[in-house]
């Protein structure tokens, strides 16, 4: 609720803002009276009346100016009372003084005065009714005396005129109540809208603050999660190079594949978490849907066998253009959902192409879903047939993630199910024209010769430094490994190191330092534009732009050994 003081302040602002027009009309009517009655009544009285009207008008103009400058220095009640008082004086001048002056001529000119007074009362109805006492203070002394005067005169025309003037005054006073009520409703509505806008602004600022806090939290969490995974990938890469027995290599290859899949999922999950803050990056590329699905199905082989589920797939060779990581996350969640909620059944994955769309069908002949539950399964933390909250059946987030990714990637997901007969999830992806560019990373990796390179490693995580150093030494590189920019510069100044061939630095270092600053310091020290790789888990546009401006190459964590070697080769070739 808005207090009485605020409403009166709004009323006073409306009155004073509209008053210049009324004052201008008052001067025009005064001139009309002088012109019409100049030869009909005592001119000295007419001049005296016009002088008072002019003085009052000037006083009201001064009051308006004073209100514009000093409205906050007085209470709204003061300004309303002052305006009401001047309205009353104006009404007395027109309805009492003028009537007294013009009485000798009214016998022959009654309609002119009647027209002037009723017109003034009607014309001021809307502006003066903003504050009801103000309109009464003007209209009653303006019309009521003339109505009484006419009623007291002999003659039918006077009686009719007086009666009409009184009725007209009562009608205007009744209308003024409705006008005042509408004005007050408008003022209250304006205040409510203002409050609503202010509340919306506050809520928006709070939401933006929460999004910023969430983004900072996610950045920190992403960094903490990616660091050990990043180190694990590099250790596995180093171990893979040194093992020779076939069974050992198979285990390492499987561990590397699982670690790589985990890294991809972590990147995608962090991007999804940033949906609320609008920071998700969609990296579209052309890729084989067949290869992606076959790889994903292989990941679930062991899990399916444990529940006696047979995975079958019929995959046409189809190339699509979308984000392979996010699409892969959608498919993994759908397949995982089918396995978690079924057993002793078949699970088939099929692709087909029709009318410019690639369709993916994930069908099981398991227990099925009730029709009443189909609208609920995409809700967060919603699980069917899991009242005990068994974690082996998931957290109830898989299909919620699928739904959000469906909207993000514009890939519709349809579901159909019958109890006891199974469930079908269908995805539809628009097929675009493409040009296939094959890149054999294995050949690039083996054709790169890194032996003899001097490389600086800068990372505040000891396990990461050790993992990269182990890899580089296996590739016969000379390595300087340090944890901070200060340590690096002290080491370079103390020992006669040659200029490095490459700098590999983490983006976020200790003491709020960043890798690009360290790269800049090393370049300034050697006065050379030394190639640099900046490794980070943050893929925000601002950070990517910053790294690009410093002529550094960006690598997103986690980075495996093949990617690292390939990127080193690219940087050194440019």
**Rounded Rg:** 43 Å
Overall pLDDT level: 80
**What percent strand?**
5-15%
Multimer state: single chain
Helix-strand category? alpha/beta
Biggest sheet strand line-up: 2-4-5-7-6
Tally of DSSP β-strands: 12
N-to-C terminal Cα separation, in Å?
A: 68 Å
Can you walk through the features of this model?
The protein is of the alpha/beta class. It has three domains: 4-153, no CATH class; 282-430, Heat Shock Protein 90 (2-Layer Sandwich), CATH 3.30.565; 441-573, 3-Layer(aba) Sandwich (Rossmann fold). The protein is built from 18 helices and twelve strands. It has helices spanning 4-37, 43-70, 76-102, 106-123, 125-128, 132-151, 156-242, 246-273, 289-299, 301-306, 324-340, 398-409, 441-447, 462-474, 485-494, 515-526, 541-549, 561-573; strands at residues 285-288, 310-314, 319-322, 346-354, 357-364, 413-418, 422-430, 454-458, 478-482, 502-506, 532-536, 553-556. The strands form three sheets. Strands 2-4-5-7-6 form a five-stranded mixed beta sheet. Strands 9-8-10-11-12 form a five-stranded parallel beta sheet, with helices on both faces. Helix 13 (441-447) packs across helix 18 (561-573). The chain is elongated and about 130 Å long. The model is unreliable at 386-396 and 435-446 (pLDDT under 50).
